[in-house]
TrEMBL record, chain A:
Residues 65-284 form the ABC transmembrane type-1 domain. The chain crosses the membrane at residues 12-35, 71-90, 102-126, 168-188, 209-229, 263-285. PANTHER family: ABC TRANSPORTER PERMEASE PROTEIN, INNER MEMBRANE ABC TRANSPORTER PERMEASE PROTEIN YCJO. GO terms for biological process: transmembrane transport. InterPro entries: ABC_transporter_permease (IPR051393), MetI-like (IPR000515), MetI-like_sf (IPR035906). Its main location: membrane. Keywords: Cell membrane, Membrane, Transmembrane, Transmembrane helix, Transport. This is ABC transporter. Pfam families: BPD_transp_1.
Automatic annotation (TrEMBL), chain B:
This is Sugar ABC transporter permease. Coiled coil: none annotated. GO terms for cellular component: plasma membrane. It is found in: Cell membrane. It comes from Pontibacillus yanchengensis Y32. PANTHER family: ABC TRANSPORTER PERMEASE PROTEIN MG189-RELATED-RELATED (PTHR43744), ARABINOOLIGOSACCHARIDES TRANSPORT SYSTEM PERMEASE PROTEIN ARAQ (PTHR43744:SF2). Belongs to the binding-protein-dependent transport system permease family. Signal peptide: none annotated. Residues 69-260 form the ABC transmembrane type-1 domain. Gene3D superfamilies: MetI-like. The chain crosses the membrane at residues 9-30, 73-97, 104-125, 137-159, 180-202, 242-265. It is a multi-pass membrane protein. The keyword Chloroplast does not apply.
Length: 295, 275
């Protein structure tokens, strides 16, 4: 196998041809646009670093940045919390909970459904006067006045975060359970014999051994979360209403490019988003990795 | 009952509650698809109504949802087939042959895997404008030939399953390299290709932003784009019709999940542990 064999090029050629045209070239072209005021027609006009200066002082971009973080953060905390609790319950030798297969499947179901359908479904169900959610809560007497979920910044962000939690806790649970099944059963048996209680078992065995897999979940969720688009786009007016609280970075990018034809500036937003993703993935990875090395 | 049994009962109640929360919105969707707008506005109910057919007809007067269904199917099936075949081909090239630049190319591919899809979106749109493929399925289908993650997954799979002696034997028999790929390597890779295909299909079926950007004609819309279109149309006034539109876009995936759930879940588990 040491001998060089150029037949390999034949096999990888289609991949790299398409990759160059539909992947690399658009990424480079987008980079070029960041230095222009291109508006979708004619020759792009070179404007140097103007777009980069603009993005640093653009309050809408900062708003989109913080909105994305708030929504993702709340969703991830809840999603991981629920998934960890479920993993702890199902891995507990004393409970011997049955029906793992059934619960896994039903918890995962919301993740499989097209997000745009989910967004539209909830946009009608969360309707102020006629939505099923308010009607249900009023009929069972939890609230007396209908709540205008999608018309106030805080409730709108919380609603979107909760929908994301609803969509993702099942997936995170499945991934964590895969990690739990990799933990040797003798560890739990030993803990049981030593008289460790549930909390001790969870904190000293399950949690530390799940760290690598939690890192995986966190980075993939972060990358996906920073690209949040479908849900905020379709659940309200597509412009980030109410009061810009659902304006996420990719929604802002989309609107700048395809609603207002500011291709040059939208390209700059795309690169800013990319940079942010790389930086935060690296921070997450480093901090989690260091912690696990120390212990 | 002992204290332990009490706790166990609470745990089961909690699990049942989560299960209900997971499924309830879908149940409400189906119930509301059978009620007319007046009934939906008058209050909340778990009991189906009798307006299913009317709702369906009202929706179909505005939007032919089956056309969107067909478009989504054409795109997703093509994407799955192309991605599966060409990724296998590429993985085979990387796993079996030694050539100049092999490792740099592979690492480059892995690095590009980290790049989020939106980074090149504007350039992608301009490229398609330039080559005249806007408002066609080409920008949705053809890029699937280059799916770095699938290549990576299949190459790892080949490295453990394809034994060099198998290849040597076939070469002795005078088989061409391409024939070896089709008759030996591809069948070996099929289980891994199938696993990846499920996720490729779901990903393509649910893709929203790319078709939203490149498609303009309603008769070409894929389901997710059509759903957005539906929301902005007059049908949105008729809640029952809106619900049935959503239901049609959702139910087929739910039915498919009934059959494949075990397979899908074990694939997620396997994928995450390996990494």
């Amino acid at each position: 196998m040491k001998k060089l064999d150029y037949k390999g090029y034949f096999f990888i050629a289609p991949f790299f041809a398409i990759f160059l045209v539909f992947n690399i070239y658009p990424v480079l072209l987008t980079f070029y646009y960041t230095f222009t005021s291109y508006e979708g027609y004619g020759t792009p006009e070179f404007i140097g670093l103007t777009n980069y200066i603009r993005i640093f002082s653009d309050t809408y971009f900062y708003e989109a940045f913080f909105n994305t973080w708030k929504i993702w953060g709340l969703n991830f905390a809840l999603q991981l919390g629920i998934a960890l609790l479920l993993a702890a319950l199902f891995s507990d030798l004393r409970f011997k909970i049955k029906g793992l297969g059934f619960f896994r499947a039903i918890f995962y179901l919301p993740n499989l459904i097209t997000i745009s359908s989910v967004a539209i479904l909830f946009s009608i169900m969360l309707d102020w006067r006629h939505g099923s959610v308010n009607m249900f809560l009023q009929q069972i007497g939890i609230i007396s006045e209908p709540i205008n979920w999608l018309n106030q910044p805080v409730t709108a962000q919380v609603s979107v975060a909760l929908i994301l939690t609803w969509m993702w806790f099942g997936y995170t649970f499945i991934v964590l359970m895969a990690g739990v099944s990799g933990i040797p059963g003798e560890l739990y048996e030993a803990a049981l014999i030593d008289g460790a209680n549930r909390w001790q078992t969870f904190v000293h065995i399950t949690l530390p051994l799940l760290k690598p897999i939690m890192l995986y979940v966190m980075i993939t969720s972060l990358i996906g979360g920073l690209q949040l688009f479908d849900l905020p786009m379709l659940i309200t007016d597509g412009l980030g209403a109410p009061e810009g609280s659902l304006n996420t970075m990719v929604l802002y990018l989309y609107n700048q490019a395809f609603r207002y034809n500011n291709y040059g500036y939208a390209a700059t937003i795309a690169y800013a988003l990319f940079l942010i993703t790389v930086i935060f993935s690296a921070i997450t990875f480093k901090s989690m990795y260091r912690k696990s090395v120390k212990e | 009952m002992t204290r332990k049994q009490y706790i166990k009962l609470i745990v089961y109640v909690f699990l049942a509650l989560l299960a209900v929360i997971s499924a309830l919105p879908f149940y409400m969707m189906i119930v509301n698809a059978t009620r007319d707008t007046k009934e939906i506005l008058s209050g909340f109910s778990f009991i189906p109504g009798s307006s299913l057919v009317e709702n369906y007809e009202t929706m179909m007067d505005y939007v032919n949802i089956w056309l969107g269904f067909k478009n989504s199917l054409i795109v997703s099936v093509s994407v799955t087939v192309l991605s599966g075949y060409f990724s296998a081909l590429t993985a085979f090239g990387f796993a079996v042959y030694n050539f100049k630049g092999k490792n740099p190319l592979f690492i480059f591919m892995l690095l590009m895997m980290m790049v989020p899809g939106q980074l090149g979106l504007i350039g992608f749109y301009e490229l398609n404008k330039f080559i005249g493929t806007l408002d066609t399925f080409i920008p949705l289908i053809v890029p699937a030939i280059a799916s770095p993650f699938v290549v990576f997954f299949l190459r790892q799979y080949l490295a453990t399953t394809l034994h060099p002696t198998l290849l040597e034997a076939a070469r002795m028999d005078g088989a061409s390299e391409l024939k070896i790929f089709h008759t030996i390597a591809l069948p070996i890779m099929m289980p891994a290709v199938a696993t990846m295909s499920i996720f490729t299909f779901i990903g393509s079926w649910n893709n929203y932003i790319v078709p939203l950007v490149v498609l303009f004609s309603p008769e070409k819309f894929t389901l997710p784009v059509l759903m957005g279109f539906l929301k902005g149309s007059q049908v949105a006034q008729n809640l029952g019709s809106m619900y049935i539109g959503i239901a049609i876009s959702v139910v087929p995936i739910m039915v498919a999940f009934l059959f494949f759930s075990k397979y899908i879940i074990s694939s997620i588990s396997a994928g995450s542990v390996k990494e």
